Amino acid sequence: MNSPERFRRALAGEPVDRLPVIEWATWWDQTLDAWHAAGLDPALQDLHALHDYFGLDRQHQFWIPVRDEGCPQPAGFGAPILWDEADYERILPHLYTDRLLEGIQRECRRIHREMGDYAFWYSLDGFFWFPRTLFGIENHFFAFYDYPELMTRMNEDLCAYYKKVLAIVNEETEPVFMTFAEDMSYNHGPMCSYAQYAQFVLPYYQQLTPLVRAGGAHPFIDTDGNVEPLILWFLEGGIEGILPLERMAGVDVCRIKEKYPQLLMLGGFDKTVMHKGEAAMRAEFARILPAVRAGGYIPAVDHQTPPDVTVENYRIFVRLLREVSYAPYEPCGSSGVPARSLG
Question: Which of 42, 181, 208, 212 counts the highest number of beta carbons within 10 A?
Fold first, then answer.
């Protein structure tokens, strides 16, 4: 069974030889710098080469671009690109362009031609995320009140563009899942109210998730922090899965699986224990094992592997992750509780 087949069957709840064993997020540059300084072959820079080196399953992410090369850039992290409607008009020729669509088509064809044994997934800027990249982090929060019409216009334009994108992706590729990049939760919960979500975000999920599923992909949300209060919001929009499920924010994959057995999950393994060695990592895998056995959950690091994790400890993590990937499937009953305790 190759990687895309394994992904599809695992996410569909069908019998599988084992779960995918992946590092879904790009490694931090600080992590790779530390590994290379400690003796890792400096030629190992390419992500696909690193996947093969560590014995991870092959997967490839394509982050769909929205801003063309000529688009103005923020002065720094979280800084604004625009302030008002006039600025949006000024940069509009650099957004949602035909040149971007042509490049997306070329890249999709290359992926399909060259990566048949890779599990392919793609990411779209979400409808909370994208206005923030234009307004900047601080101004974005004020824009809900100061520029609601402009926020709506941005997201309507983005949704129309994504309908064209999805027509290309669905025609040219065979994705296993996708993510809407949002980061709309932090360690205490959502960054906006439900009313704001329902006005500015939800309608666009409801338009796009049927198109995503029509292409064979499961729609996921990528949002950090404590996502549990937002799960019902996302389900209403047709979202099927969530990642990265950060433990430091209090997220509990077993609690989620009991309450929402239909929800797909990816991530959930507490990255802060990886540097502590095998015993600590075994204890963390034991914590999440009931959710693994319940199905519809692919365990992985709950974001990116930190730079304090040595190559040796990362190898231990991959070995233990592979062990857990063979855990017997015990689907949840009608109550959502796994059929058998771990014992």
Answer: 212
Q: Where are the alpha helices (DSSP H) in the chain?
A: 3-12, 29-37, 47-54, 85-91, 98-114, 129-135, 137-146, 148-172, 194-200, 202-214, 231-236, 253-259, 278-294, 311-325
Which residues lie across from 301 on neighbouring strands? 269
Longest dimension (CA), the chain: 63
Q: Are 304 and 27 in contact (CB under 8 A)?
A: yes
Residue 258 CA to residue 261 CA, distance in Å, equals: 6
**Mean pLDDT (whole number) for 138-161:** 98
Q: How does pLDDT run across 211-259, given as a tens digit for each residue?
A: 999 999 999 999 999 999 999 999 999 999 999 999 999 999 999 999 9
Please state the φ and ψ torsions of residue 265, each to the nearest 5 degrees: -140, 150
pTM over 0.90: yes
pLDDT at 337 over 50: no
Tokens at 251, concatenated = 């997220």
Q: Are strands 297-301 and 241-244 parallel, antiparallel or unpaired?
A: unpaired
